[in-house]
Amino acid sequence: MPVKLFTLNGVPDDEAEDVRALLKASSVEFHETSAGNWGISSAAIWLNDNSRLEEARALIANYQNERQARARAEYEQLRREGRQRTLAHAIRQHPLRFFAYLAVIAAILYFSIKPFLDIGK
Length: 121
Description:
By secondary structure, this protein is mostly helical. Helix content is 60%, strand content 11%. The protein has a three-stranded antiparallel β-sheet with strand order 1-3-2, covered by helices on one side. Helix 3 packs across helix 4.
């Protein structure tokens, strides 16, 4: 019986490709399901052979640890060089978008809270 090995919902395309390539390089047989037309199904990589489950999970865990270490190193390097993107950078880059989002958030808060403020009247 197939076993879900790796969920693909919310996974970046490059990571999914790396996991597929890793499994193929290790001759681990798998099949893949998509999220469907509306994106509500479980997109995943399924292991065909249960006897290789621990090996496949170990391969993926090792890959994810390496990916995490690379991402942290890249983040630290950008931060040291002062090129890491911050909220201030995002606001300076797109000020109109920021204030539009802020106005929408304020409107939602206002209309969410207003009925409770009117109860005492």
